[in-house]
Structure formats: C-alpha cells, structure tokens
Amino acid sequence: MSDNENKVPLMRIKNLYKIFGKNEKKVLEQVKAGKSKEQILEETGHTVGLSNINLDIYPGEIFVIMGLSGSGKSTLIRHFNRLIEPTAGEIEIAGSDVMKLDEKELQGFRRNKMSMVFQRFGLLPHRTVLQNIGYGLQVQGIAKDVREDKATEWLNTVGLNGYANQYPAQLSGGQQQRVGLARALCTDADILLMDEAFSALDPLIRSEMQDQLIELQDKLHKTIVFITHDLDEALRIGDKIAILRDGILVQQGEPVDILLNPVDDYVEAFVKDVNRARALTVETVMQPQICRISSETIGEAVLQMRKSKQDYGYVVNDDGYRGLITQETLENVEKGEYDNVIDASLLEDVPSVQSDALLESVIPDMIDNEHPLPVLNAEGEVEGHLCRTTLAEVLSDQPSVDNDVKK
Amino acid sequence: MSDKSWLSEIPQLDRHQLLDIRKTLDGAYRSFSREYGDNIEAFFDPLLSFLIWFEKLLLNSPWWLVIAALAIFAYLASRSWKLTLGVVVAFFMIGFLGMWENTMRTMSIITVSTLLAIILGVPIGVAMARSNRVQSIVTPILDIMQTMPAFVYLIPVVMLLGIGKIPGVIAVIIYAIPPVIRLTNLGIRLVDKEVLEAATAYGANSMQRLFGVQIPLAMPNIMAGINQTIMMALSMVVIASMIGVKGLGQPVLKSITNQYFTLGLLNGLAIVAIAIIFDRLSQSYAKRTLQNFGGNE
C-alpha cells in the first residue's frame, strides 16, 4: 500500500528468532551464523521455529501470514501477545515494547490491546454463548449487566440472535467460530489476531465467514493479523501477505505481487493452483499504453491515431468513454469530411470494464469482442486496455509473460 | 560375613544387627510419639469435636428426619425419583434390620473423611498438574499409599494417636485420597490447550485460569476421582474398625471372629447399599453438571 509510507506501523517485529529446545541462547548463535534448520536439528537437537523475522503491520490493514503446516506461522502469531516467548528479537506494538512488559502489564496489554480467534474456537464449553462472548470483559472485571449488554450487541452483529443461552457444543462449527469472533470483537481491542480462524470450517461456511469478516472490517477498521495455509483465502481477504517457510519469511507484499512475481519455487508452487481469474483485478493486468482520442473532429482524430502508432483508439469526451474507432474506419472517411464531428456511426460499440473488476467477470465481454476492452477507473476515465492475449497469458500461467505484464 | 558362602547365599545382616536397627527405629519413633503425641493430638482436637458433633447429629435426629434429609439430598443431586425412592427404601430396611446406629456412625466418618480427602486432594492434584517436579515427587508417594497394606501404616498412627476416631479418619484418608489426587492432576493436564490459551490471550491471570477454565473443564475427571475416593473410603470401614472406629465394620469384625454368617452378611450388605447410593448420587450429579460439555458423554 503506497499510502503507508508516511504512516507509522502499528506492529513492528524486528529480528525475531525462536528456537525450541533446552539451550536456545547457545543455539541462537549458530543460527545467526547461518547454519540451516536441518543442520541445527541434527547437531543440537533444537528446532528452529522462527528465524530473523521482520514485519511491519500498519493500522487498519488485514495482514495475512501464510505458510504450510510446520512453517511457524502459528508460532509467529503467538509472539504478538507473548503466548510464546521469543529467543531473541524485538516486538513493538502500538508504541510499547512488548518484551519489556512484566506479568501484570502483559495481562493489561492482552486485555485491552488485542484479542484472538482460534482455529478450534477455544470456547469455554461450560459457559453459554453469551458468557463466552463476554469472557474478555469478565476477565477485566466489568460488571455483569454491562458485559451482557455488550455481548448481546456483538451476538446480534455476527448473526447469532437467539443463541445467547445455548452452549457451544449445541452449535455448528461455523456458529461456534462466530461466537469466537464476537468474543474477540467484544473487548474493543484494536488488533485482532486470527490463527487459522476459518481453516476448520467447511468451504461454504468458510467463504461465508470471509465475507462477514470483510464486511465487519469495512465498518470497524481493525488491524487484523490473519494466519492461513490457504492462498485463495489469503488473496481474498488480505491487504498484504507474508509467506513463511520453515520459519523464514520468504516474501511479503501485496497479493498481486505475490501472485505475479513469486520470488522462488516455493512461492510459485503455492501460487500455481490459485484461480487467478478470481484473485486478480483488471487493473493489475491491463496495459496502460493506449490511444485516447479526445478530439471533436475526424481530422484531429486521424492525427492522434498516427501519433500513437496504433490501429484503433478509444473515443472519449467530457462525459467519458464513447466507443472504439479503428484506423480502417478513419482511413475510409473522405478527406473532405475531416472537419466533421466524430459521429456515433463511425464508432464500434465495444463495452468497457471497470478497473476493480475481477478478471473472471470480464471474460464473457472479452470473448464477444475482437478488440481490446477499455478499462475505466472509478471516475469513468479510460485508464488502459485489456486484450485477449494478455488475459489468456495471465490465466494460463506463464511466468515470463506475467513479468512483462507487470512492467 | 567373613565366610565365603556369599556366592550361594545372599549376604545378610545377622540377627543382632537387624534387632539393633529395629530397636533404634522403634525407640526413636516411640520417643517421638511420647514427646509430641500430645501436641499432635491437640492439633486434631477440632477435627475430633467436629466428628463427634456430626455423629451425634445423625444419631440424635429422629430416623424419619434423617431419611427425609437424605431423600431431599438425593433428589437435589440426581433429579431422579427412582434413585430417591431407592435411598428411602434402603435406609428404611437398614433401620428395620437393626443396623441404624452403626450405619449413622459409618456415614458420619465416611462423610468427614471424604470431605477432608477432597479438601486436601484437589489442591495437591492442582499443584501436581502445575509442576512436573511436584508430580514426580507425589506420584511415588501415592503409589506407596495405594499398595502399602493398610495395617502397616495403622501401626505408627495408632502409636502416635492411640485408637479411636482420629486415627480411623487418618487411615481412611491415606487409603482413599490417591484417586482424587491422581484424577485432579490428570483432569487438569488434559484441559484443552487451546481453551487455556484463549483465556491467557484475553488476559486472564493464573487464578482466573484455574477457577474459570482448568477446574471446571477438569470436573469430569475430578468427579470420577471423588467417586472412587468415596468407594475406597467405604471399603476401609472394616479395617478401620480394628482400631476402634465404631460403625458397620465392628459387627463384621465380630462375625469373622465368631463365625456369625448372617450378621456379617447383613452388615456387609448395608455397606454395599451405602456404597451404591453414594456412587449413583455422585455420578448422576457429575453427569448433570456436565451435560453441557457435549462430546464428553
């Protein structure tokens, strides 16, 4: 996100290491000296959980940490609220150095600054749904009627009206995770940690929950750290994605970067199976070099067309895009008519596409039209075009072409 | 030990040496009990007066009031009319067959011992669950308590405190406490890590975790432990009667020495009846409180 440059990160992790074993400090030196995870395990019996992690997470974004099981993603997220103590490194959240907090301060920090949603929900089985949602407030010592009011509010927000006095075991998986989400939101913490929150759910319920999360996020603007092993999910909800492999951060960036410029084979293997038509927007693959014909008369249009060295152009006026005109049509016009205004009969009726549309949604229009489609931005101005070959190349997964497209 | 027969025979202290060791240990313990016996007895005085008070309460109340109280208690714990009726019939039969007083005495000592076992056992179990070190120390002690013949630890207890109710209660507790400790430990260790982690993540302190999450979630196991403790306490009744604990155990002991078959059988059956009632009551209570857990049944 380019507008992050003058923002201060809300969460910052610097040179974070986590080694599992009895003698972690000693082994840390060897890890820093550059020994591989396998070497360390063989020589010392210690497992390297995380190695030199650096992350900046900005307020209001959904930051997705992705990796296969065993890549250390769940370990990483537990460092944010120090459910796991790092071997070395700095964790700075909302201006406070988390590593320097003592037991009491840490409890206060966990109560007020962040809340967490768990893969297997982590609900208290002996408490009702309402009591579960109010748990965070209860821990803070807030009066019963206040926390019940608040819990009821969140219960309704996640769409579980009427389930207040049920017990978690009486609910389906999706409903239980809604309770988990409501519990996390009920404390009004700015930061939401979600550890594979939707991974245990059926695909259909999962996408429902993703929609709900996105919808809630539009209203609440929390900072969300989301762990997943599912790239489709990451692309769907993430503003930024970091990919973790064997405890090392392989790549981080915006979803499009990851999709179109995977840094290595590992990331590429991840990206391969993604349905690009559903993950990419028109904007990310369109070509900006186009011939825009803004002139009123045919004569000027011919000049503009020659300058651009293309054989077609998009005719625009103050109201926006009017249609496509080809060089052939212009050449067929008698020179004597050059002073005439460009007439609708000269234009070909080529539909436009919105720049934020998913590729999937433009495929039908693409197939119906021989000419590249003009891409309009939110203001209705022509920003670029999208031609069939580009679309085909992007969707057919040819990395070399992808790189060209990105340039 | 100077001869060379050690290859064929196990080297052994000779009789004088063994005698010396026994004398020294016995003597030391005897002087210890002479020295501190009174103090230790004084320490247990409040417990003794509570025991006597409770026994008198049961003995002096009219029989129908005791049965009514038991029936109400049974209904509250189990919410089952069948079980309640069973309690009424069983206690009426016990009284009808002339065992009312002994049964009340046994009930009082069992109740007090079980309560004490729970009060002591649950915290010990919690401590074991929290620290592997404590667990590694307590586990062998529990092993000894469960396998050492009861008569062996009755000796020092009787030497120290004489015969009577207090040594009886101590013997019953030593015999009956291991299950509640073990199962509390197990139950807390088996609490779902993620639920506990969730509590921590929301800023719960260790007391909030213990009483809000760990103990409630360990309840199925703790209840099983309490149930076992009650059963074992009841089975200790006969042995405890050897050191002067009055109750259903004494007639059983008498019938063993005099070969009174019917007397032994009737008193034995009374013990069984109490055991079954307590077992069903504690189990149905546990089941009822845990029905929300789902998946645990």
UniProtKB/TrEMBL annotation, chain A:
InterPro entries: AAA+_ATPase, ABC_osmolyte_uptake_ATP-bind, ABC_transporter-like_ATP-bd, ABC_transporter-like_CS, CBS_dom, CBS_dom_sf, Gly-betaine_transp_ATP-bd, P-loop_NTPase. The keyword Nucleotide-binding applies. It comes from the Bacteria. Pfam families: ABC_tran, CBS. This is Quaternary amine transport ATP-binding protein. It catalyses: a quaternary ammonium(out) + ATP + H2O = a quaternary ammonium(in) + ADP + phosphate + H(+). NCBIfam families: proV. Its EC number is 7.6.2.9. SMART domains: AAA. SUPFAM superfamilies: CBS-domain pair, P-loop containing nucleoside triphosphate hydrolases. It comes from Psychromonas marina. Keywords: Amino-acid transport, ATP-binding, Cell inner membrane, Cell membrane, Membrane, Nucleotide-binding, Transport. One of its GO terms (molecular function) is ATP binding. It is found in: Cell inner membrane. It is a peripheral membrane protein. Residues 11-271 form the ABC transporter domain.
TrEMBL record, chain B:
It comes from the Bacteria. Pfam families: BPD_transp_1. It is found in: Cell membrane. It is a multi-pass membrane protein. InterPro entries: MetI-like, MetI-like_sf. Gene3D superfamilies: MetI-like. Its main location: membrane. The chain crosses the membrane at residues 57-76, 83-100, 106-129, 150-177, 229-248, 260-278. SUPFAM superfamilies: MetI-like. Residues 103-282 form the ABC transmembrane type-1 domain. Keywords: Cell membrane, Membrane, Transmembrane, Transmembrane helix, Transport. Belongs to the binding-protein-dependent transport system permease family. This is Permease.
